[in-house]
Design a protein that fits this description.
The protein is of the alpha/beta class. 43% of the residues lie in helices and 15% in strands. This is Aminotransferase, class V superfamily.
Length: 384
Amino acid sequence: MDNKLMLMIPGPTPVPEQVLLALAQHPIGHRSGEFSAVMAEVTQNLKWLHQTQNDVLVLTVSGTGAMEAGIINFLSPGDRVLVGSNGKFGDRWAKMSAAFGLEVEAITAEWGQPLDPEAFRQKLEADTDKTIKAVIVTHSETSTGVLNDLETINRYVKDHGQALIIVDAVTSVGAVNLPIDEWGIDVVASGSQKGYMIPPGLGFVCVSDKAWQAYETAKLPRFYLDLGSYRKAAQKNSNPFTPPVNLMLGLQTALRMMKAEGLDNIFARHQRLMQATRAAIEALSLPLFAPDNAASPAVTAVAPVSIEAEKIRSVMKKRFDIALAGGQDHFKGKIFRIGHLGFVCDRDILAAIGALEATLRELGYESMTPGAGVSAAARVLTQS
């Protein structure tokens, strides 16, 4: 018989049945009173999720589209920007910024290692003429399973006084505590197929008052991604263009589920799943790619040595219908990644680790004690 596909990748993530049923409804008019009511509720709940009173705008884009909107609406050609780059997506924001004619200075770290906040501090403190217009940082680097120290980097940006901080929070919103108003973060971008528990297709951009001031003088071209248009429409519980109505209905349901669970419980669950996964991987004598002090609650990257990562992924998919993510760019074939964000529970981790143990045995891996991974994960899960 066909097995049930189990997504253990960092996006798209599993979708709850309640959300699937919402997605399956007949569409409603996007200029109707019914849709306006949906928009009003969704907007308020997005602010709750983002821990902000700032605008949280909904775009029909991927996370990359949300990040592009977060860059082009607040900067001008030739602006100097610092871009943190320690993985696929940090590299992408540096390339995107260069494509728009910005003067890019990359602050780098090896893939699998966190960005050094001190490198940002030194650059920002040396900028006495205040020529740095923005600092662009990936919070949870999906490609490597690294969680960068956004709080400290943001503090140095605030000390600078002029620069905006623009954050890729695509795999951290809904998985990691990100108190936007408390920290005073200017622009935060995310995507629907991650912690939001719905399919791909929606991007979200949270914008501070300081960023809106920069918007008034920004000169990069924009039309479909002009956030000013989205802000005006959102004030009327509408959208400037045709939105994916059924995704909005799914988002409405997903946000209700998240509110019922509560922010603290959501963050604690993701932390617990991360710890259980990492404990299991260590018990199986497989090397973890990211260090403990910079591990992302969204995804765990594993760098096997004596067994091929792609063989592990292949057997997991063919034998157990469990999808794991592979490495990207120069780490393709060298690591595999286990996603544990969004609609993922303790049982999913135990099932995935059990299947991983069986896969390793099938591939002739002998550097483990049978059952060690499941036992290690279970200890974490039962202690929490």
